[in-house]
Write a structure and sequence with these properties.
rod-shaped, EF_hand_dom, 7% strand, EF_Hand_1_Ca_BS
Length: 135
Amino acid sequence: MAGLSFCALGDPGLRLPWQVRRPAMPAGKLSKKTETLEIRLPPETKAAFMARCQASRRTASEALRGFIEQDLVTPKPAPRRRSLAWHALAAAVAGLAVGAVAAPSLARTATTDATFQRLDVNHDGVLSVEEFRAR
């Protein structure tokens, strides 16, 4: 299994004579890097990551530390929970939309029925072309 283990001290083979320090913790004494982090990656992902680190002239540990530090300081939006009121409002809007579409077809008035009865001379419930032309 292809694994990748990064030590918090970095990869000495890629270390530069100078080191870029990023503020990881609040102002004060920086804590010692004693913890390790192990992640498992496919070999091609590891190779691509290491090549990018080498091209940017930093160690893999520096890149990962920078990512972790940035992730910790970036505020994350709180997940929004949909409340019961939101669902009720959505249902009400949907109901109004259905009602608005259905209302014209349900709006049969007595005058419409009376007009049809007047045109349907033989009272068979069907308006023929002759009955329509005779109006």
